Amino acid sequence: MTDSAPLAVELRGITKRFPGVVANKDIELRVARGEVHAIVGENGAGKSTLMKTLYGMHRPDEGQILLDGREVVFKSPADAIAAGVGMVHQHFMLADNLTVLENVVLGAEKAHGIGAAARARIVEISDSYALGLEPDTLVEDLGVGDRQRVEIAKVLYRGATTLILDEPTAVLVPQEVDELFGNLAELKREGLTVIFISHKLDEVRKVADSITVIRRGTTVGTADPRTTTAKQLAELMVGAELPTPQTRASTVRDTPVLQLRGVTVAGQGTRPAVDGVTLTVREGEVLGIAGVEGNGQAELVDAIMGLRPLAAGTVVLGSDDISAWTTRARREGGIGFIPEDRHRQGMLLDAPLWENRVLGHQTEAPAAKGLFIDRKASIADTERIMREYDVRAPGPDTLAVALSGGNQQKLIVGREMSAHPRLLIAAHPTRGVDVGAQSVIWELLKDARAEGMGIVLVSADLDELIGLSDTLVVMLRGAVVATLDPGQVTPEQLGGHMTGAVTDTPAGAA
Fold this sequence. Notes:
Elements lengths: L8 E10 L2 E11 L4 E5 L6 H8 L7 E6 L2 E3 L4 H6 L2 E4 L11 H6 L3 H4 L3 H13 L15 H14 L4 E5 L7 H16 L3 E5 L3 H7 L2 E6 L2 E6 L6 H9 L17 E10 L8 E9 L3 E5 L6 H9 L6 E6 L2 E2 L5 H6 L2 E4 L3 H5 L6 H6 L9 E2 L2 E2 L1 H14 L16 H14 L4 E5 L7 H16 L3 E5 L3 H7 L2 E6 L2 E6 L6 H9 L11
Parallel strand pairs: 3-8, 3-9, 6-7, 7-8, 13-20, 13-21, 16-19, 19-20
Antiparallel strand pairs: 1-2, 1-4, 4-5, 9-10, 11-12, 11-14, 14-15, 17-18, 21-22
């Protein structure tokens, strides 16, 4: 590319305000045609808001958007798509009961119809960009990496020449990350432009041609991934060194806090979602559960929390068989819960923060006052959580929807830790949070472990699982297929067990 060639994307002085919050302030972004450009920054820095502005989901209050040197004004995502900008969201928007072809064509029937021409175009896209898609495969039969490729195909099918990827590696195992990076190389080779948001700085440095860093809603600099270390990037983002999940010396005690005996949960077909799982978590122990998403981890968590009935087996908390207890009774019995989907299971987005602090703890102090909610005490305790857990918001009356994902997560973690549970179920506790918030959450889990809390940790971040866990198990097709020593396993080996490529348990594993 010559210096005179127009930029694929240029954002000049972008400012976006919401009630009580300036999400973006005078943002500058320059992306060359045919490059992979990463945007990094802590939660609440304004990355997602900026990308939604580029995709037409928000109108900027100030500033200009230029594509290939021409100013554009987007009133909706349809305008952005028509201009060649597509976005793959972190949470996939696919219909499981439809085929790959039907998902790709849905909403874009006018482009190539729904028959032979559409099929030929999808095969052409798949071959051109090495996506490896089969048009007639049902999406429900696809793994996470393949689903992501379907989302990319959807965007390309609609004619996108600039792709925005939001946290594209958040749910992928190392092998799938490598495959995605291969796909990105193909996109780049064909002259397409990729902008992606990520919190994984080593991955950013591996795949990006250039990096823009955003802090507190404004651009603080650009970086060359070839000459910038992960530590330097972290410092640009949050003013601190990159944290590591490595845990301290063992704190595991002899007393069991959770025992699962032959736990089975029915699935949608003939195969159970959870198949005869037997596990023990002791006081002061972090039991890590690894597995490609969709292999029973979510259903196992639901079974422990009483959100799904058992088809067989028992759940024992301390010395109590709680298999028949309600979810509320389990919460009151000392189980804390950081859910996988904070919006669906962890928060009321249209309620203020103090009401969200009460959720799940409405029968306990400080929320409870006889049969009623103590509003004053709840507000005061929410202010304490905001201080101690660095939840950045104007105040406890702020609606939860106004917070970034990381700040929402810190509120949930603070709420659950404040109840001092004896067992914590932590499902993807740092998904979608920046290195600063990630470090805070890791330290909280380490401290709770040291004080004797038993923790079940489900995560797609393999470094996190290996670093925090005392014991590591792998789930595949609903069953525990390996028990590993976190001190002796690499992320690549763990990924091999998760995908079924490795079936033997290493010598010396628990």
